[in-house]
Amino acid sequence: MQATTTHPTTSVPGQYWQWRGYNVHYVKAGEKHPHRPPLLLVHGFGASTDHWRKNISGLSKDFEVYAIDLLGYGRSQKPKIEYGGNLWRDQLHDFITQVVGEKAVLVGNSLGGYASLCLAAQCPDAAAGLVLLNSAGPFSEVDSTAEPEGIQSEIQPPQQTELLQKLLGDVVKWIFKQQLAQFILFQYMRQRWVIKKTLEKVYLDKSAISEQLIEDIHRPSEDEGAFDVFASLFTSKPQGEKVDVLLKQLTCPLLLLWGEADPWINASERSQQFRKYYPQLTEHFLKAGHCPHDEVPHQVNPLLQEWVFSVSAK
After folding, report:
1. By C-alpha distance, which of 137, 133, 134, 110 is closest to 121?
2. What are phi and psi of 163, to 5 degrees?
3. Could you give the C-alpha distances from 165 to 99, 158, 182, 235, in angstroms and in order?
4. What average pLDDT does range 150-174 have in this prediction?
5. How remote is the C-alpha of 234 from its chain's centroid?
6. 77, 22 contact by CB (below 8 A)
7. What's the rounded mean pLDDT across residues 152-179?
8. Looking at the predicted structure, is the pLDDT value of residue 309 above 70?
9. How many CA atoms lie less than 13 Å away from 46 in the CB half-sphere?
10. Which residues of 65-78 are buried (b: 16+ CB within 10 A; e: fewer)?
11. What is the mean pLDDT of the chain?
12. Which residue, 66, 58, 60, is CA-closest to 6?
């Protein structure tokens, strides 16, 4: 019988860094190691540094660990600006340069994976390695929309004939470009029961969905500017390069950790796309959903640790 691991129920105390006049929240744990790069953990859509608490506690024994709230998320400021991969790439680059002080291994989930890939590919001076957990982002040959997977799943019309489906899809997209509809959807999606329902879709192990996790996702929606950030998903053109283009530019080691039960991302298909453009990657498939780092940290932490040790030794 497998022993259960007790994970911390409180977050690591955070601090703030000023970036382009905005307050950016981050946490730091562990000590610097001379022959081991620091880790920078980057959360997914709707999440924050809190989503990494189970990883920070385990990884900080062997690494200097940072986790950051992307601008518009968590405890970071939520200005009314255009959001996307380019903005977050620049934020992560400046954070590594100004705060971390040396190349870091970027570890990103979902939206945070895409932001991390943008940085590692386009600013190689900042990345010692890249770890992607069910990473988001469009490939050139695959149709995609600006909305993150979670929102798409809530607003997609039911499957109909191809023509009707396209018409309904266009109508839905037009509706959600209207501010009133955006506000109604925002109010709906930030309800705690809706957050719980969404998590139950994307977590294989429902016991990992705690009241604290629900509150961690709900809390930032109360912040000033939270609605503007949400609305920008529908009004801004996606800012950032396609994943295949980024992979062609990537030079650092790459580890993929897939939650294979993710209903938003087809892990096996996406794995083949990544391998097509970056065949020298390492990957593992885990019995988990969209957020394997939070659902199965007892598997993710050792895999991540061993991989960083191996690439650091080269």
Report:
1. 137
2. -65, -45
3. 48, 8, 21, 22
4. 47
5. 19
6. yes
7. 51
8. yes
9. 22
10. bbbbbbbbbbbbbb
11. 87
12. 58
